[in-house]
Specification:
The chain is α/β, with parallel strands linked by helices. It has five helices and seven strands; from the N terminus they run βββααβαβαββα. The strands form two sheets. Strands 6-5-4-7 form a four-stranded parallel β-sheet, with helices on one face. The longest helix is centred in the N-terminal third of the chain and has 20 residues. The protein is globular, with a radius of gyration of 17 Å.
Length: about 190
């Protein structure tokens, strides 16, 4: 398979794993992780069927388990768990040289808006998010007071040139066509 970012055929296998179906999940059984020798992108080699299973997993299993989790202190999307805050601080440290408090910011794949809430605590006010999971976006909007939309990272429902800063944390590696997200980000920036 070619790299989904630079389309180079020069890719090497990093990991092959038979994940089984220990919990009867719709998530794919076999996992193959590749490394692009040209651009350095690490990605899952997914068939269309596996990608459909991944979407079903996020919409019907992962989000439901997180939203209904009885553990309010766990490392769940939107949480302020110790490990989550450490990750948010590291992410903020990496973007802080490029982002200003008056920027209009979009978090693509925002889940329940945890990082947007983190940015709000730092004084950012023009915050937006998008996530494919409707259950997450409903909770995120109510929880953080930011503008959250339901939709796809590959077809962002925003006008061109409408944002100053776009981020996507823990999303790109799960996409079958991440180049589409980058084209969309370029369009809305």
């Amino acid at each position: 398979n070619n790299c989904p970012l630079c389309y180079s055929p020069d890719c090497a296998g990093l990991l092959e794993l038979d994940c089984g179906s220990f919990d009867l999940s719709s998530l794919y059984r076999d996992l193959e992780v590749l490394f692009c020798n040209k651009c350095g992108h690490v990605f899952n080699r997914l068939s269309s069927k596996q990608y459909d299973g991944l979407l079903k997993y996020y919409l019907d299993e992962y989000s439901v388990n997180n939203v209904q989790s009885p553990n309010p202190t766990g490392d769940l999307p939107g949480s302020r768990n110790k490990n989550t805050v450490i990750r948010y601080n590291k992410l903020y440290d990496s973007i802080s040289p490029f982002i200003k408090q008056d920027d209009r910011v979009l978090d693509v794949g925002c889940a329940m808006g945890g990082f947007l809430g983190f940015l709000a605590d730092k004084g950012f006010r023009d915050l937006y998010g998008i996530d494919i999971c409707d259950e997450y976006t409903k909770r995120a909007a109510a929880k953080n007071g930011v503008t959250i939309k339901n939709g796809s990272a590959e077809n962002l429902p925003f006008d061109g040139s409408s944002f100053d800063f776009v981020l996507s944390d823990q999303v790109v590696e799960h996409m079958i066509n991440p180049g589409r997200l980058f084209l969309e980000a370029k369009r809305i920036l």
